[in-house]
Design a protein that fits this description.
By secondary structure, the chain is α/β, with parallel strands linked by helices. It has helices at about 20-30, 45-55, 75-85, 110-135, 155-175, 205-210, 225-235; strands at about 10-15, 35-40, 60-65, 90-95, 140-145, 180-190, 245. The protein has a seven-stranded parallel sheet, sandwiched between helices. Helix 4 (about 110-135) links the parallel strand 4 and strand 5. It is globular. The two termini are about 35 Å apart.
């Protein structure tokens, strides 16, 4: 039996929100598997550091800045990636804004920021990249969702709403480009230790205690999404599309 190919050689990937956390692990995994990666993040200095590290390891990478709550950055991200790396084959919409507040107290400004970043920027980036993928008969889109899309949460109603929308967008985009060689999927992380969740995991003891609630016995770490990312982008995963795959240690089961 010949094993399927899990590599992504000569592909170009744009990964948003990728200077740290899950996005960075995704970008590193794709680079290690042969792809050239554009690492976008509002923290451009951190993105540049990570891109330099990939280049030092004989990979191809560039750093791109911009605030993901500003929809006007979409064209620049696509154009800069195209100019420096080539046509985009893989789009990973990872950038996200999560702002908790009591339902009645959510400021309008916070609503707009989360909707722009979590819903509208992924939509716009797909508009700018997926048609050319279809012309080349190959493409991969991965949207980063959340288990909050499936759960009621009175303290994160806007965030959960945007992630539920991303789940539906994933399926709709798949149907819009059926038969073109493009797959579209979403990854829904559970409880992960990242810089954004530092307040939830202030000490190693707290991390261990929260891990006891997980069926697998621990919380998640960014690299837990790396393998699935490579699978979905490789030839080995070409028959997986329109799926929202939970990476949550069994939390949602």
């Amino acid at each position: 039996m010949k094993l399927p190919d899990f590599s992504v050689p000569n592909r170009v990937a744009l990964v948003t929100g990728a200077a740290r956390g899950i996005g960075l692990s995704m970008a590193r995994a794709l680079a290690a598997s042969g792809a050239a990666v554009a690492i976008q993040d509002i923290a451009l200095d951190l993105a540049q550091r990570e891109a330099d590290a990939i280049v030092a390891e004989c990979g191809r990478a560039i750093a791109l800045g911009g605030d993901a709550t500003d929809l006007s950055i979409a064209e620049k991200l696509v154009n800069d990636t195209l100019a420096q790396l080539g046509p985009i084959d893989i789009l990973i919409n990872n950038a996200g804004v999560q702002q908790g507040a009591r339902f009645a107290d959510v400021p309008v400004e916070d609503m707009i920021r989360q909707i722009n970043c979590n819903m509208l920027l992924p939509f716009r980036l797909a508009q700018l990249t997926v048609p050319s993928m279809a012309e080349r008969k190959w493409g991969r889109v991965i949207n980063v969702s959340s288990i909050q899309a499936r759960r009621g949460n009175g303290g994160m109603t806007i965030y959960a709403m945007t992630k539920a929308a991303i789940d539906n967008f994933t399926k709709g985009l798949m149907h819009a480009y059926r038969g073109t060689g493009i797959t579209v999927n979403a990854i829904a992380p559970g409880w992960f230790v990242t810089h954004r969740n530092e307040r939830d995991f202030p000490t190693p003891e707290e991390i261990e205690n929260k891990g006891k609630w997980m069926p697998v016995g621990r919380v998640g770490y960014p690299d837990d999404c790396a393998g699935l990312t490579v699978l979905l982008c490789s030839q080995a995963g070409e028959y997986i599309s329109g799926q929202v795959i939970c990476v949550d240690g069994g939390m949602s089961a």
